[in-house]
């Protein structure tokens, strides 16, 4: 148990309403593999987005009985299929936030992006919910320090979904203890505190929706398979060395190195899936067509466009803002043909979550 995060002030619960909005994030160095409880096998690095976010409202009041008591609505409708994940989450956080056992909560959530777009929403969902819980904690103890507020929000989010802990931080975020970054931790994400060359401060991320159906294989299962993976140890050391290379690229503004690391990470993530036991493939043929087209475009136009992938078929195009117009033309002329119903979402590096 992490004592720092156990709430032990005296309190009395009234009723109220809290509301937060939190973004999704995209990893450049991937988290893939974990130990109990939600401790990552390797450090990961991501940036949070601006346009893909979850807004969550929690209304609460005192409950007569002790126990977890909530109702959950997504887009105004009950979503029983999310409840087992929520039950687990509340169970896990109740030792750190015992006050939730003494209240009834009504949780209303919605995403800025379409639910069936194949975009993972657990990062934005759990981070928005954890920020709401921390807002309640702040009402019970108004003396909370701002830095503790966000650190604990990230800590709680991690217990909901690992990558969610990185959504609490604006711009670039690191999760997972590493000697390379002094403020890093396995328990929560921290702001990337080393130099970031100006050329990376305005990154764009266009998400090409290749397949909007739900994943056939959950990330959680994929992480589990890394424990017995024949390349498991090698993957962990590769992630560590890729982190050190991206730190070098950030420091010097070396875009070539940045692209190499980002694309290696994306392809390794999927290579790990293809070499797990059991193995599986989440890329679709259009994912590969996009990747090849990106490589051709980059060579032909001496561009800084590159790609990354999540645990799914969709492709994230990563590029500096200065190339926005040319990349948009490329998408409309070529890539849109590989997207399901021609769908893509333009996003960019963001300023992190905020209170509504
Ligand atoms: C491929 O955070 O979804 O997106 O901790 O089991 O909820 P759980 O997994 P999750 O894993 C996401 C992995 C990834 C890479 C990344 O975001 O770093």
What does this structure look like?
There is one protein chain. With 356 residues, the chain is of the alpha+beta class. It folds into two domains: 2-195, Ribosomal Protein S5, domain 2 (2-Layer Sandwich), CATH 3.30.230.10; 202-348, Alpha-Beta Plaits (2-Layer Sandwich). It is 34% helix and 24% strand. It has eight helices and 14 strands. The chain has helices at 83-93, 122-140, 146-160, 219-225, 232-252, 255-274, 285-301, 324-333, and strands at residues 16-29, 34-35, 39-40, 44-62, 69-74, 77-78, 103-111, 172-175, 189-191, 203-208, 306-309, 315-320, 344-348, 354-355. Strands 1, 4, 5, 6, 7, 8, 9 and 14 form an eight-stranded mixed sheet that branches. Strands 11-12-10-13 form a four-stranded antiparallel sheet. Strands 2-3 form a two-stranded antiparallel sheet. Helix 2 (122-140) crosses helix 3. The radius of gyration is 20 Å and the shape is globular. The two termini are 31 Å apart. The model has no long low-confidence stretch (mean pLDDT 96). It binds ligand DP6. Residues 27, 30-32, 44, 120, 122, 161-163, 219-220, 223, 269, 310-311 line the site of ligand DP6.
